[in-house]
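FORM 12-B: Structure-to-Sequence Request
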């Protein structure tokens, strides 16, 4: 149970950070090229500036599920540490 808990505790956060930093890299490349990043369409264009929309607002289900999986992993870790090995 402890091993499953550690996987559920760590892996969703790593996946969430990977997706976030990947998108942030795309935004930085777009801004360095002189463009404007459209967050809803996830494309770089040369039109007028687009409003900033936070990652959690655009992907609420993904963010909530990864946080829920991490919380479940934390509970599994606590249970695994509480129950003795047989």
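FORM 12-B RESPONSE
SEQUENCE OUT:
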């Amino acid at each position: 149970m402890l091993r499953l808990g550690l996987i559920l505790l760590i892996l969703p956060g790593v996946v969430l950070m990977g997706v976030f930093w990947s998108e942030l890299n795309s935004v930085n490349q777009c801004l360095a090229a002189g463009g404007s990043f459209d967050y809803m369409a996830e494309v770089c264009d040369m039109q007028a500036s687009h409003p900033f929309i936070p990652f959690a607002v655009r992907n609420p289900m993904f963010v909530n599920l990864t946080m829920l999986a991490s919380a479940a992993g934390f509970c599994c870790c606590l249970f695994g540490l509480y129950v003795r090995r047989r």
